[in-house]
Amino acid sequence: MSLSQKLDMIPKSMIRRLFDLASGVKDIISLGIGEPDFDTPENIKEYAKEALDKGYTHYGPNIGLPILREAIAEKLKRDNNIYADPEKNIIITVGANIGFLMSLSSFLKPGEEVLIPSPAFVSYAPATILAGGVPVEVPTYEENEFKVNVDDLKKYVTEKTRAIFINTPNNPTGTVLTRKDLEEIADFAVEHDLIIIADEVYEYIVYDGFKHFSIASLNGLFDRVITINGFSKTFAMTGWRLGYIVAHEKFIDKMVKLQMYTVTCPVTFIQYAAAKALRDKRSWEAVEKMRREYNRRRLLVWKRLNEMELRVFKPHGAFYIFPNIKKTGLTSQEFTEKLIRDAKVVVVPGNAFGKAGEGYIRISYATSYENLVEAMNRIEDFLKKHNLI
Ligand SMILES: Cc1ncc(COP(=O)(O)O)c(C=O)c1O
Predict the structure, then answer these.
(1) Contact (CB, 8 A) for 236 and 39
(2) Closest of 346, 218, 278, 203 to residue 41, by C-alpha
(3) Which end of the chain is more exposed for a tag (fewer CB within 10 A), N or C?
(4) Whole-structure pTM value
């Protein structure tokens, strides 16, 4: 029996393999998973219960509930300087992750290329392949704070290039792009007539006085930017599976069709709860509280890694740090496997995020301060014991 080849083109997740290796090991500390360790704020949970009591238990519109699209439009205006029409420019999705495939499916033709600054979130390349396109990794460098460089983009752009991914704040590096960085990318995109897919799921998790900037808010750019966002990271709602896409209606119309014949609509009572959450100041107080705690952890891990004399870029956003482990002489994969076995600490090898991630590991500090102290002690002992530094 012959099976689909499309899915064979996508490698199995390396992260899964590591988690398999770690499963069942007693006393293990995981700095591998990219999700808030906090519970969803209480007021949001209350809104979900209220929605059930009010009878939000039926199918909703394919594009998403009006109440939620309106609340998102208000937020976009207030925080992102994006003026989106809730009736035409916003679609609600089942998490941000599906948004990449939905967005690419709305415009990509077979064989067209998509630029992916690397290291990058693991879904961009598979989504491109599933949409019939060709992912093209553009390396970014630690020396340049892992910011994508227009000179490098020029080396990879071809006649077939149709789009570029931008992720700020970035997973896995923690890099936050400034308005100036984004203006340079925007000029490049306009020059080559590219669509920009802007993944902004970590927008509220920024430090050191950095402010997130949305590329779609730049003058004249809205029509070529597809902004993807969600509730998972901001409100610690990973299991609720809720996201949204903001774009010109020519893209949204196509995505509505896709949604209609696949998931139908995101869960109705969850959409209601999210709409109420966006308009409730208690949710935003909870976001700020979580951000402060992430920052406390970030500073701890940053200090400890420096004391271990590992070279490490100081992240300004998200909840990841991406130390350079090249001096140990081990590959990212060797390092992580040895670390699990010897020190019982799980991190993710940098090459899981693309070729440019080789020589690095990703540490997620979305876990308790106490866990992080213990994990740093174990990593330090591990490096010393094996003469790796
Ligand atoms: C950069 C980035 N984009 C998107 C997602 C997906 O988020 P969601 O839970 O909304 O699907 C993640 C999750 O780890 C992420 O790190």
Answers:
(1) yes
(2) 278
(3) N
(4) 0.97
Q: Is the CB of 168 under 6 A from ligand 1?
A: no
- One-letter amino acid of 222: F
Joined tokens for residue 196: 């920009």
- In whole numbers, what is the pLDDT of the chain averaged over residues? 96
**What is the band of 304 on the pLDDT scale with cuts at 50, 70, 90?**
very high
Provide the pLDDT for residue 22.
83
Indicate the SS3 state at residue 4.
coil
pLDDT, one tens digit per residue, over 348-387 is: 999 999 999 999 999 999 999 999 999 999 999 999 999 9
In 42-63, which positions are buried (b, 16+ CB within 10 angstroms) versus exposed (e)?
Answer: ebbeebbeebeeeebeeebbbb
Coil, helix or strand at residue 351: helix
Of ligand 1's listed atoms, the one at least distance from the Cα of 231 is 10
Q: Is 234 in the pocket of ligand 1 (CB under 6 A)?
A: no
Q: Ligand 1 pocket, 32 CB below 6 A?
A: no
Local structure of residue 311 (DSSP, 8 states): B
Å from CA of 127 to ligand 1 middle:
13
Residue type, 89: N
Burial 76-95, CB ≥16 within 10 A → b, else e: beeebebebebeebbbbbbb
Centroid of ligand 1 to alpha carbon of 382 (angstroms):
31
Nearest CA to ligand 1 atom 13: 34
- Specify the higher pLDDT residue, 115 or 3: 115
DSSP-derived secondary structure for 119-158:
S--TTHHHHHHHTT-EEEEEE--GGGTT---HHHHHHH--
Q: What is the 99 CA–ligand 1 centroid distance (Å)?
A: 10
Query: Is ligand 1 within 6 A of the CB of residue 199?
Result: yes
Residue-range domains of the chain with CATH:
7-40+283-384 (3.90.1150.10), 43-279 (3.40.640.10)
Any ligand 1 atom below 6 A from CB of 96:
yes
Is residue 169 within 6 Å of ligand 1 at its C-beta?
Answer: no
Task: Return the SS3 of 75.
Answer: helix
Q: Which residue has the tokens 């920009």?
A: 196
